[in-house]
UniProtKB/TrEMBL annotation:
This is Histidine triad nucleotide-binding protein. It comes from the Bacteria. Residues 10-120 form the HIT domain. Signal peptide: none annotated. PANTHER family: HISTIDINE TRIAD HIT PROTEIN (PTHR23089).
Length: 121
């Protein structure tokens, strides 16, 4: 059921404290932690504490927490001092788009020139 913790979900286990993570921020509805396989000098994940399979399900099921994810992404960008140089927010939705953990999350990437991609504007 949407919103309920899933026993087989990696991110639900991180929220529950069953799997360690380098937590940077926490609100009532979100948890922010460093990605264990960073793709940029700054690579942080912001997740809802409640389980939603992807960003679309989160937006439909709890728009307030979906908005909170974006607010927290901006806050962590400021904390990590990547606002001036620029950063990317990425939601992968579905296996075909590269989603490997089916719990909604946004990647906050910054701190490197590799973030520029000519095909993305």
């Amino acid at each position: 059921m949407a919103g309920e913790p899933q026993s087989d979900c990696l991110f639900c286990k991180i929220v529950a404290g069953q799997i360690p993570a380098t937590v940077l921020r926490e609100t009532d509805g979100t948890l922010t932690f460093r990605d264990i396989n960073p793709q940029a000098p700054t690579h942080v994940l912001v997740i809802p504490k409640a389980h939603y399979a992807n960003a679309a399900d989160l937006a439909a099921g709890d728009p307030a927490v979906a908005a909170e994810l974006l607010t927290e992404a901006g806050e962590v960008a400021a904390d990590e001092k990547i606002v001036e140089s620029g950063y990317r927010l990425i939601f992968n939705t579905g296996a075909g788009a590269g989603q490997t953990v089916f719990h909604a999350h946004v990647h906050v990437l910054g701190g490197g020139t590799s973030l520029q991609h000519p095909g993305l504007v």
